[in-house]
Amino acid sequence: MTPDNEVRFRGCLDDVAAYKPGRPPARTDGRPTYKLSSNENPYPPLPGVLAAATEAAGQMNRYPDMGAVDLLEALSARFGVPTSDLAVATGSVALLYHLLQASCTDGDEVVYAWRSFEAYPIAVQLTGATSVQVPLTDDARHDFKAMEAALTERTKAVLVCTPNNPTGPVVRRDELLAFLDVVPSNVLVVIDEAYREFVREPEIVDGIDVYRDRPNVVVLRTFSKAYGLAGFRVGYAVAHPPVVAAIRKCALPFGVSHVAQAAAIASLAVEEELLERVEALVTERTRMVGELRAAGWDVPETHANFVWMPLGDDTVAFAEAVQAEGVSVRPFPGDGARVSIGEREANDLFLSVARAWRQ
Ligand SMILES: *Cc1c(COP(=O)(O)O)cnc(C)c1O
């Protein structure tokens, strides 16, 4: 109970855990350090993108275009969806917050796989709704049968993370479509495709195909990972107009800065070059997974820019051993560690610790 003379906040805030960002690496006596803890793109901005952002910064005395018209048009042309089906916000996490704020309140339930993205429980709890976390299968995938069983009349939203952060597997087309067929059409289904560009699975479901004839489906994507704009905060949602309208009502006015809008538009214009970098990261990912398995690690399949190390009780000690070499990873104590695919030297440094750990 809050004493009478203290400011009163909503009760649902009491148990909200603060979002833990990936740690920067510790200093190691002058040797280079690497951050493999936040799934960032290790490449610096492409010159054209940097130039567009720099030029846009010259207008910082003006509010940005609140409707983000040019960015919506660029996205519309790129993905073949009408601008009425698109919304942008300060990262796809912001879109998730807006969607949950628009759909959930006290007493409602939100179903999602667990372990999954750390932002989910926080975003759900802030609305007053309850998280219904459905354990992943043994091979770290969504368990759609169990998710179906978890649906109740209180379910307002379902979150599907593909590829799943932090474990890596992707949701296959057949399993998602079968699941969508059993979710009531008045329950919002959020398909979080933050790592879409890194997927190399032929049976992949493309959210943008799926949403077209399903008014309860919304697809979230981001410029933070493959496009390398994490610092600018810009993500987008694809959904039918009523869902888009609900997002827009909840969004902060002028959230996405002019600089971020310009950088996102410029990134779409140089997408081929950016996707070559994604390809190089995928090649590094294949190498990492191969080397880890060869060293005896039982790592799950990954279609994202990270790999999951199932470490159980060794997680914290392992993360500290890696940290001592100047590489930060993302530990989930008692469960495992998520390691982003970074520059080759960083990956090699990480692999050397991982190999030694098994000996
Ligand atoms: C990184 C990530 C996002 C994107 O976050 P932004 O807010 O767009 O930077 C969304 N979902 C998942 C699962 C992620 O890992």
UniProtKB/TrEMBL annotation:
The keyword Cell division does not apply. HAMAP family: HisC_aminotrans_2 (MF_01023), Phe_aminotrans_2 (MF_01513). It catalyses: an aromatic L-alpha-amino acid + 2-oxoglutarate = an aromatic oxo-acid + L-glutamate. GO terms for biological process: L-histidine biosynthetic process. PROSITE patterns: AA_TRANSFER_CLASS_2. Aminotransferase that catalyzes the conversion of aromatic amino acids and 2-oxoglutarate into corresponding aromatic oxo acids and L-glutamate. The gene is hisC. Transmembrane segments: none annotated. SUPFAM superfamilies: PLP-dependent transferases (SSF53383). Residues 35-332 form the Aminotransferase class I/classII large domain. Gene3D superfamilies: Aspartate Aminotransferase, domain 1, Type I PLP-dependent aspartate aminotransferase-like (Major domain). The lineage of its organism: Bacteria, Bacillati, Actinomycetota, Actinomycetes, Propionibacteriales. Its EC number is 2.6.1.57. NCBIfam families: hisC, PRK03321.1. It is an enzyme of class 2 (transferase). Its cofactor is pyridoxal 5'-phosphate. Belongs to the class-II pyridoxal-phosphate-dependent aminotransferase family. This is Aromatic amino acid aminotransferase. The keyword Protein transport does not apply. Residues 20-40 are annotated as: Disordered. The modification N6-(pyridoxal phosphate)lysine is found at K225. GO terms for molecular function: aromatic-amino-acid transaminase activity; histidinol-phosphate transaminase activity; pyridoxal phosphate binding. Keywords: Aminotransferase, Pyridoxal phosphate, Transferase. Homodimer.
